[in-house]
Amino acid sequence: MSQFQRESRPESPAEDAPRAASAKAPKIFDYHNPAGGWGALKSVGRHLLHSRSPALNARSLFKLNQPDGFDCPGCAWGDPEHGSSFEFCENGVKAVTWEATAKRVTRQFFAKYSVSELKTWDDYRLEDQGRLVEPMRYNAETDHYEPVAWDEALDLIADELKALPTPNDGIFYTSGKACNESAYVFQLLARLFGTNNLPDCSNMCHEASGVALNAALGTGKGSARLEDFEKAEAIFVFGQNPGTNHPRMLGVLREAAERGATIVTFNTLKERGLEKFADPQKPLEMLHNGSHRISSHYFRPKLGGDMAVVRGMAKALFARDAAGEAVLDHDFLNRHTAHLEAYRARVEATEWATLEAQSGLTREEMEQAAELYARSNATIACWAMGITQHKHSVPTVREIVNLLMLRGNLGKPGAGTSPVRGHSNVQGDRTMGVFEKPSKALLDALEAKYARPMPREHGVDSVAAVEAMRDQPGKVFIGLAGNFTRAISDSVVTEKAMANCRLTAFISTKLNRSHLVTGDQALILPCIGRSEIDRNAAGKSQLITVEDSMSMVHGSAGINKPADQSLRSEIAILTGIAERLFADAAIADEVIDWAAMREDYDVIREHIAAVIPGFHDFNSRVRVPRGFWLANPVAGLEFGTATGRAEFSADPLPAAVMHQQLASREGWLTLQTMRSHDQYNTTVYGYDDRYRGIEGGRQVIFLNRDDIARLGFEAGQWVDLVGESDDGVVRRVDGFKIVAYDTPQGCAAAYYPETNPLIPLSHKGDFSHTPASKSIAVRLEASTRLA
Ligand SMILES: Nc1nc2c(c(=O)[nH]1)N[C@H]1C(S)=C(S)[C@@H](COP(=O)(O)OP(=O)(O)OC[C@H]3O[C@@H](n4cnc5c(=O)[nH]c(N)nc54)[C@H](O)[C@@H]3O)O[C@H]1N2
Ligand SMILES: Nc1nc2c(c(=O)[nH]1)N[C@H]1C(S)=C(S)[C@@H](COP(=O)(O)OP(=O)(O)OC[C@H]3O[C@@H](n4cnc5c(=O)[nH]c(N)nc54)[C@H](O)[C@@H]3O)O[C@H]1N2
Ligand SMILES: [Mo]
Fold first, then answer.
1. How far apart are the CA of 421 and the centre of ligand 3, in A?
2. What are the Molybdopterin oxidoreductase domain coordinates in residue numbering (predicted)?
């Protein structure tokens, strides 16, 4: 076999569990099958077995995203409003079985393994130990976590917070898994305490979308709804891998493709899910090993090249308009938009050669994409992390909105913006006020409701939180869900920063690296998960609510028995902290009755209804099957901008994006860090990435064949990845196997979070401060690791 040839092999058999932790040397093979299909069903079987709780899980799965069931803890893709809706999703199954596992992390486990030892374990092995069951406190003398009573743990948090010199020394992080009610209580707690230090995972995710959409359209959320996907004539998908990360979206794309809609993909990698999909819910297709094409056209820009691509499309349209072709919607432009001429001038002044060099696409390709766009009378643009995790993400999202406006693709059926969100409730958490830069309106509403002054100074976002902890010891960090320490960039710097804290405390379901990087004191506070029944003291089961990517708010109630009887709900933990924190402050019970909130989440929803716009009659509206829609003004052509119109931006293209900056630096490449098919963010379910032909390992780097040869390496060789160290921090990760892949020259890809040590903290988006995790400068060194 030649060095670039890959072994061709069939899909792996269903019998074996996700591959063992020791199997670290990945096998590489060519994957010829469509996304979904039998491969997905086999994988489901494996994960059900591995969880050791198959009966329970099968039942859970049929209650996913049902009106009387629970919201899938996977992605934020919307649920259909009609028809039967058990939607099969391989990765939704993984998310549920991972939570519903029969394995437990007991006090004996913590007695056996010191924190130093656990730090040598990888992410998979840590979470695979099972569910956390009782609160644990770190003992620095023994280097072990030890059991602690709930009261003692909550007292410790309140005492440490009270002991801080200023409330701004408290940092309150939220991951998008947290439901609306938890998020509301958490932000209220932080603000009553006196700080807007409410960083969240959005800061690392779709922040650029919110900033750009707010500036352009006056609202930060996407405007396209699920029914718009049924009417769209064209769907443009930028920088997103739905086959893995939003599998239910594939069903929607497939239906669109079947009825003849044009699906145009822009992705730096050839992603299987964007090419072909076999729907496991279509028995005939499964029987005949059939599948359906997804993308009608697939363009592969270089990393960070999308702003140039979209500008090229606009340039082609302006040229055709100038030649008298009816390709722009002048009526829409005149009635609803502002600053068109400045944009037009900017676009016309940008040379094709500049656009080609930055995008990595040819002028012909950009003109072809423009032609596909010009033929459609209703277009939706979707995007995700391939767009939002660059330095110039905000101007890029604005450029996408510019393009949509040129043909009036806002406020009409089958059209609009669709930033496809990540975590199942990341959008809802923001709606609930989890934001380090709250609006004046929110703070005024909170003040009116609680008759207490709210902090007006902006708080820290995720990157700024690390900088603050790095520069100033003695903070208290509380994490509501998530794995902050592992998810944020510059792992070595971040871990030192976290260790500077006087207390780190995480409300979690599973053991992760954040628990192991301890402050002077550290707590693990285990909670019940979304698939589990949340009973109050009186035994009544509680409802929580979430908001999906299309702004639908709906209820969710777990059906499984909690993993352990000593677990508490997130809300019980948070209200417990609040009671202790504000015991001697002048917050009278009649203003906030924390115990009543805990006993009945309807009480929290009454608070939300009084403070957050759009939530009137929350308790009754959320009990209607499928919930309610938070109206998006853009859908009604209302724009909350300074001009009252949809505003064009005329940002210059970046002088040189990362791949251009590195072109003159011998041996350097631009690295994107992304998800495998077997992970949920920092949660690693297994070591396979089926659609990309990887089995049994995550330490791989995908490279263009010519780059491999040019740099003097061979496919299959082990290399170390070295990042920038001009600030004196050594950034490297060792032992990655080279995989030849269909990606443009100069562009490399590897999995997150293993590669987070390579991203300097300061390498972040302009205006969004999102770590630029899709454009990292790296070079390769032959590894000492043996193949
Ligand atoms: N199963 C599963 N589901 C998930 C998650 C998970 O980890 N696992 N995570 C959830 C979360 S929080 C999020 S935010 C979403 C993430 O969903 P995605 O955004 O799909 O996640 P990534 O794996 O980061 O994939 C980025 C995609 O963009 C492409 N890309 C990267 N850079 C560029 C670029 O410069 N230009 C273009 N055109 N393409 C580029 C990559 O090749 C890749 O296909 O998924 C959510 N759903
Ligand atoms: N290099 C690089 N870095 C990235 C990204 C990237 O593409 N590249 N993506 C970024 C993105 S988009 C995101 S959203 C962040 C993700 O950042 P986070 O949201 O902070 O991380 P997760 O990995 O989703 O968190 C997993 C942990 O959440 C806990 N958990 C799970 N379910 C629950 C629950 O119901 N309740 C509670 N209380 N805890 C629960 C478990 O203990 C589990 O270990 O990472 C970011 N980091
Ligand atoms: Mo995300």
1. 7
2. 131-499
